[in-house]
Amino acid sequence: MTIQQPTQQPAEERNQSESTLTVLVALVANALLAVAKSVAAALTGSAAMVAEAAHSWADTGNEVFLLIADRSGSRPRDAAHPRGYGRSTYIWSLVAAFGLFSAGAMVSIWHGLTSLGSAGEDSGFGVNYVILAIAFVLEGSSFLQATRQVRGKAVRFGLHPLRYVARTSDTTLRAVFFEDSSALVGLVIAGGGIALHQATGDPVWDAVASILVGVLLAFVAVFLMRRNMEYLLGEGAMQQVYAQVLRLLLDHPQIDRVTYLHVEYVGPERLFVVAAVDLIGDEVESHLALRLRKVESDIETSPIIEDAVLTLALPGLPSLSLDDPGPTARR
Question: 229-255: per-residue pLDDT in tens?
Fold first, then answer.
């Protein structure tokens, strides 16, 4: 998330469109796969395929919630919500993650456990393999779209893509990336369970694969829920973002120095900034108040700063330096 000047506003709109495209690609892929896997599960009775069908149905529902999250969180701020509606994105994403946990993970684990003692069926392996192969191609396409977006943004921070996607405030991108990656791993697990069932004639492998898919989904869902809860509680910005905001303040022609800075996410790539500053010159209090408000307005023209609150620095306090962004910055 690079601090940009207001003349670069179209870049923010392109980022929003790219996130929406990522979700739409995942939605279409998962909807098609949910139907195909459900048909295959009904024809073959495979516990692993039932787990995969539950996985795809859960992901399809999640993408709908993520689209709602993007739309509700992008509304402009108003008098009732001076810092915008960005946090509603985390609420809807939290609902989506819980849906993955309940509709995907729990159904898969429960069906696998109840299938452990059943005789199972020894037919329809070919159908399952064809559906899994098609699923791998479609899920892979969605994963590649998410990966391209992750890598492009990670480069701007100098971070490894996996570290970036774990820490990014863009909860929609994180959800799609981890859902797609877990879907690919789940397909491998399901394929392995079906293959072992076919090779040994023992359906317990099919049931075990269903349980493992459920455990995988539970792990991903809990991780996503936890990250959304942290942002709802007001997680501070990463060190790189903190340093960029500090640079933006110090580069303003009216600001001499900064003695305090708080940077907090109030939505995906949206920031609330509180700072104590010294202004250039020595004017009476009434003039300083007007100048301070003008500087706040200038800072808020940055595409990612939702709200800025500036106060005058107390005399004698040390200045913040770009070499030491401060203890509140997330690494």
Answer: 988 888 888 888 888 899 999 999 999
